[in-house]
Amino acid sequence: MPTFAAPDGTELAYHLVGEGEPLLCLPGGPMRASTYLGDLGGLARHRRLVVLDLRGTGNSAVPVDTATYRCDRQVGDVEALREHLGLDLVDVLAHSAGGDLALLHAVRHPRRIRTLTLITPRARALGVDFTEEHRRDAAALRSAEPWFEAAHAAYERIWAGGVADADWDAIAPFFYGCWDRAAQAHAAADVEQSNEEAAELYASPGAFDPAGALAVVAALEARVLVLAGALDSGPLPRVAADVAGLFPRAELAVQAGAGHFPWLDDPQRFTETVSTFLTQQ
Predict the structure, then answer these.
(1) pLDDT by residue (tens digit) across 50-68?
(2) Which one of 10, 80, 94, 153 is most buried, by most CB atoms within 10 A?
(3) Among the residues of 37-180, which ranges form H helices?
């Protein structure tokens, strides 16, 4: 397993999956070990995935200063990996909360980004976030599911301020296009793969400067793909369209029947969408 040193000396690990031109992959969670990404539905058949374990997750070391878990303070880790790989220009793929980190890296190093692939991304770095209304809109799409009643009741308790672990577990089906055994196993691994302390600090005050970031991305030369799941609440397709509209060279893809992990819901469609985007000029 290869490693490299972050700017503060923390030893960080990354995983190489597949063959071909490198694609630097940033996990979400926030602060979930990268193993949940797998081979991204077979995308590793088209590109060599360089999958980073963020500091304090997976095989990467815990930093001496836990304040460095804040999203903007991890930008140097991503840039250090690019330099370690010897890439002048890098293709970056980020999932969910990893979208914020990818965006901040692109804002700080815009001339190093060739393409940016944002999979069901958060975009707090650009002043876009998800709301309870968004969650309710997406939840309503699943009312015919056999698990809906119990899961929706758990959502209501969370929206009312509840913090029970059982309720958070109960809403997991909303994040998958199909709540089958594979999805259930994937969801069950979340707790053991996540650094809860780091997750709490990831978006802490000071992490984001939307006004400054928007000024940079408005002139970003890199091509951008924003891929949303039609059944996902974070982001809803219409919110993903708003995010794509902030870039001069962005396209939106909405994967039918997909939730927050579209490479699990329809691997072939996901792989075709992303690989086609990456091979365009």
Answers:
(1) 999 999 999 999 999 999 9
(2) 94
(3) 75-85, 98-108, 132-140, 148-159, 165-170
Where in the chain does DSSP place strands (E)?
3-5, 11-17, 22-26, 48-52, 90-95, 113-119, 223-229, 250-255
- 172 falls within a domain: no
pTM score, whole prediction: 0.96
- Rounded CA-CA distance 157/168 in Å is 10
Structure tokens at 211: 């006004």
Tell me the C-alpha distance between 104 and 122, whole Å. Answer: 12
Residue 18 lies in a domain: yes
Q: Tabulate helix, strand, coil % of the chain (nearest 5).
A: 45, 20, 35
Show the domain range for 57: 3-131+195-279
Q: What is the per-residue pLDDT for 233?
A: 96
User: How many residues are recorded in the chain?
Assistant: 281
Confidence of residue 133 (pLDDT cuts 50, 70, 90): very high
Q: Sign of torsion, CA 194 198 200 203?
A: negative
Q: What is the pLDDT of residues 2-33, one digit of tens each?
A: 999 999 999 999 999 999 999 999 999 999 99
Q: Which residue would you say has higher pLDDT here, 192 or 45?
A: 45
Using CA atoms, how far apart are residues 102 and 255, in angstroms rounded to an integer? 21
Beta bridge partners, 11, equal 5
Tally of domains within the chain: 1
Q: Look at residue 181 and tell me if it is in a domain.
A: no
Alpha helical stretches, state H, 160-244: 165-170, 181-188, 190-193, 196-202, 210-217, 237-244
Q: Supply the CATH number for residue 91's domain.
A: 3.40.50.1820
